[in-house]
C-alpha cells in the first residue's frame, strides 16, 4: 500500500475540534494534503465560531456521526471495553503510549497512529465503520464528509458482511 502518512496526519487534525491551533495550521494542511482542500478551503473562509458550532453539531450532540470506531461495532456495551483495550495494546506494541484526553478509538487518534507508524490495521479493520460514517456525513451535507472521502480513498474497498 502506498504511503499516506501525511494525509492521515492532516485528516486527524481536520477531524479534531477547530480551535485556534487548527486555524493556524490551515495553510500548512492545505499544502501538505491537497486531497483535503475541499475541507481546508471551507474551514479557511468559515468564521471560527461558526466552524466550532458546526463541529459540535456534527460530532458531539448524537452518536449518529461518532468518531469513536468501536462504537460503530460495539455500541455502548461491555464488548466495547475489550475493544478499547485492543486499541491501547496495539499502540503500546508500536512503542506508543496512549495518553490523550479522548478514548483510544477516537478516529483522529487512529489516524495519527497510522501516520506515525505506517500501520493501517485499525483503519482496515474498521473500513466498514468508516464507510458508514462517510455516508452519514455526506447525507448530513457537512464538509467533514470530504475528509472521510480522502481517507477511505486510500483503503481497499470494505468487504460487506465480514467481521474480523
TrEMBL record:
Q: Which SUPFAM superfamilies match?
A: TorD-like
In Gene Ontology terms, what is a biological process of this protein?
Answer: nitrate assimilation
Superkingdom in the source lineage: Bacteria
Q: Name one GO molecular function term.
A: metallochaperone activity
Among InterPro entries, the record links this protein to:
DMSO/NO3_reduct_chaperone (IPR020945), NO3_reductase_chaperone_NarJ (IPR003765), TorD-like_sf (IPR036411)
**Alphabetized Pfam families for the sequence:** Nitrate_red_del (PF02613)
Presence of keyword DNA-binding: no
Arranged from A to Z, the UniProt key words for this protein are:
Nitrate assimilation
Task: Quote the protein name from its UniProt record.
Answer: Nitrate reductase
Q: State the organism named in the record.
A: Streptomyces caeruleatus
